[in-house]
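Most newcomers find our protein records easier to grasp once they have seen one. To make this concrete, we reproduce a full record directly below:

===
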Amino acid sequence: MSRRKYPLDVVGACKWYHLILFRSLFFSFVRQMWPLIDILVRSKYTYKSLDPDRKEKKFFKGPRYNMMKNLWAALQFLTILPLGQPVDFPGYRMVTYFPVAGLFIGLLLALIDVAFQHIFPSSIVSLIDVVFLAVVTGALHLDGLADTADGLFSHRSRGEIMGIMKDSRVGTMGVLALIFVLGIKWACISSLYEHRACYLIMIPAYARGAFTIAIHRLNYIRPEGGTALEFFAGKRSILSLGWLLAPVALSLFLGFKGILLNGVFIGIVVLVLLYYKKRLEGITGDMLGALGEVTEAGLFLFASSGVCGI
């Protein structure tokens, strides 16, 4: 007696459920981003030529516009993408949107990965992915990683460590840190097959979310100031971590391994911040960049592992 074949099995139903859920999340995201899309499509010269008083309307003064402006500033700070004229640097107000900027970077990374999969083998595509992650940020975080490694692993006093990190020259420990982190990323991305696009989208968002947590928990310790000083100038609230829920929500598509991924993320960030606290009792802009790179490499390492046989 042959087994009865159902037109839609359980696996198929789960796939359709995920597709419908992803579609609803996508259209919800587009609705939230529409003011930003409107700003992109219409230049300031168009506003002046068609309606000089349009900027005085309520749309351009509402909280949603302020949110889009801060997100736009975060994208301009964290990437070298041609995003038009620089907006006012809002400092701590744009820190909240770092995870969203990371999602945008991850989405571009996944699109590039899919496009080149049809041309090159997986190892070459993975190398292109690593190069893109470095180039799209202007190697800002990698520079911070090298400076931090030179300083923290020099076994000097706090004052000497700060001086070493400020030095633009790269030492042996900085070069080794760059080789290790970039090598781990390339090897791990090369071994990703299942849920590859999902990891490529999420992990850059987690890495930028680590910036938000560090700014919320630690104090800025460079007395003469620096690029990251304004991030610590405002009132820090737990609400500033709200957009971290975006990559966390995406991780649920991975099932139990997604839950473990969040645990690994928390573990990496906590350990690095505790180390920063112990060594220097605070953080600098270079150390923020190093945190992001270490978090990214660590999460790719976990994603490529065979934990739980997944």
Observations:
- The chain has two domains: 10-61, 97-309.
- The chain has twelve helices and no strands.
- The mean pLDDT is 80.
- The CA atoms of residues 158 and 279 lie 8 Å apart.
